[in-house]
Amino acid sequence: MSHEPKTPSSMVEMTFPPKVVTQGVFDALLATLFGLLLVAILCGLPAVLVFLLTQSLIAAAAAFLVVYLGFLAFTVWSLSASERGLRLHRLFGAPRLIPWDQITSVREVGREELILQGWLWPLFPPREFTPCMSSMGHFRIDFDGRHLYYPPRDADLFRQYMASKLNPPPSA
Fold first, then answer.
1. Are 46 and 67 in contact (CB under 8 A)?
2. Where are the domains of the chain?
């Protein structure tokens, strides 16, 4: 029996929970500002439209809540990696599998790219769909002509694992 420590390339499956905390005051301010902006656009606008059509605050509040809960239901609560690919685990529904042969790249991105292409545009479908309250430490996963952003709590381990899967050493 081998007592060697496991390395990312030797692990069959790993789960990468998302990072949820901010990295400093500026990061917290950015995440709060953009979080409130997105809630106002994605949940507030439908609520305003319902209010204008019905003149009912109860109907408007219900519309806000339904849209908010709809987004919450599809929030990614973790990502697991296995021999088959990456699996996005959501609050409801079956986890979504992205097979390795569809993944073209995984790379760390800066704050600007995440805010512009992950949070703000396009709004549908969302590209970053985690409860993360930080604009730092996200990775862009390109697959099947699309992409998404994910903030693993342990960025170093995630980086090593992805490198071992996407750039395996040549077999002897």
1. yes
2. 12-166
